[in-house]
From TrEMBL:
Species annotation: Aquarana catesbeiana
Protein name as it appears in the record: Ig-like domain-containing protein
Domain Ig-like: 122-211
Superkingdom of this protein's organism: Eukaryota
Gene3D superfamilies according to UniProt: Immunoglobulins
Annotated SUPFAM superfamilies: Immunoglobulin (SSF48726)
Length: 220
């Protein structure tokens, strides 16, 4: 059904990121919340592909979606106003939008869709904390990479061992995605100056990306 003449369409609001970068062969969690008129009850919920308005997620009848998305889309929200969706085995770049029918949805009401960009190569991790290294000074060196599949986060590995390491997995919420970080406690020695430090991120599809830097350790 369409919107009533009293403007109740304005009471439907959908909030989600405008762009998410996902890795081919991995999964993507698209964060989403919505508000609806108080008298709206027993409505179905959908996600659509912008390309042809095809249903890719159908809350009440999961099998009634376009063939290529059958068994690949799920709601991940645990509250009544959470429309977050997971797509597994992401294949291609696509625009998606949520709604309850072809008239009441984020694209029809506000021309909004989320652009899920799927590059062939995984993102490179970033190394930080090596900017001011001195002989005998202890620093925390961080390697971090963003991803979109919290159920299968990337693994981060260093090329040097023997140093304490802590990991942190952070939800970036409406930026869209998660951040995996490995922190290494490193006591510098001037004999390690120009040593090559390497951090590798291995993702769900077994693709790996590597960041390499040379340490610059000053004598005191």
């Amino acid at each position: 059904s369409g919107c009533s003449e009293d403007g109740s369409c304005e009471d439907w609001k959908f909030t989600f990121p405008s762009i998410i970068e996902a890795l081919k062969g991995s999964c993507v969690d698209i964060p989403c919340t919505f508000t609806h008129p108080k008298d709206a009850k027993d409505f179905n919920f959908f996600w659509y592909s912008k390309k042809n308005q095809a249903k890719i997620f159908n809350n009440k009848t999961p099998s009634d979606v376009v063939d290529e998305y059958k068994g690949r889309t799920f709601l991940t929200g645990n509250t009544g106003n959470d429309c977050s969706m997971k797509i597994i085995n992401v294949e291609k770049t696509e625009n998606y939008y949520p709604g309850i029918n072809i008239d009441i949805n984020s694209y029809k009401l506000k021309s909004r869709a989320v652009y899920v960009y799927v590059p062939d190569r995984p993102p490179k991790p970033l190394i930080s904390g090596t900017e001011n290294m001195e002989d005998k000074k202890t620093v925390i060196i961080s390697c971090a990479v963003n991803h979109t599949c919290p159920s299968h986060p990337p693994t981060l590995t260093w090329n040097i061992t023997g140093h304490p390491i802590m990991e942190n997995h952070e939800n970036l919420h409406f930026i869209g995605g998660w951040r995996m970080e490995s922190r290494m406690t490193y006591t510098a020695s001037y004999t390690d100056d120009r040593t090559v430090l390497e951090c590798a991120a291995t993702f769900q599809n077994n693709k790996t990306s590597v960041k390499i830097i040379a340490l610059n350790i000053k004598c005191k």
